[in-house]
Amino acid sequence: MDDVATAAGVNKLNNIPNYAWAACDLAQQKSREAFIPLIEQLCSRAIYTMTRLTDISEKVVESRKKKWNIKQDPLDIDNVEQYPYFTFHIKDLYLKFVETTSQSCLERCLDEFYDTQTIYWELTEYSDRVLPMERNDSDAKKAVVDLATELFKELQKRIIKNVLLKFYNSYLVPMQRELWTVVQGKVGSLSDKELDEIFEVSATKHRIKEEEKVLLQTAQQCAEQEVVFIDAATKYSHPVLVGGLGKAETF
Prior knowledge:
Layout: H1 2-8, H2 19-68, H3 84-110, H4 116-126, H5 140-177, H6 179-188, H7 192-198, H8 201-235, E1 239-242, E2 247-250
Antiparallel strand pairs: 1-2
């Protein structure tokens, strides 16, 4: 009863309570109290689901490596695991995109909560309901509650439908179509200095030079062994008597 009385009040234009406005105001307040926390919770769950995909993908890749016994060359510059800062940067871009997209989606969903004036305008323009206007009418409270309940159900139906559509178009579709473009654009706009830091160019160059020294030493040892082998091969020859005829043959 207190909510009805507060919502009805006295019309701003005259001293007659507007029960239609009261019903619209009640429906508007109750719809916000009921659905905004649910939408915020849905948004939080959506963020959690998308962020968990990074951990799941890492586990899948790791399990496939173990299953297929894939061994990574520590000097394979094409192996993305050699650049932890780069993978962290990509993951950070992904998480920021998820956060930004979810926030934009939430704002669009909250646009579905019309103010009382909009609900009242729709009611008066497209409805033929008749409400009591007298202050001492005994059916005023019941009429307001019934109309508020009806309006609440209409708001509920519209909000649920539009929120589902907005979550699909404003959250899932950007994940499928815009994510790769945004991440690629961010990476493509990195400066040379930022690329050097992310890919650890100096450390990679140093590692490759150290491996080059080892390979040069190995090549030098192989060359020396080849010389020794050729020299030994030329000396590996001695006379052999054939058939006791004193005729020698070498091999």
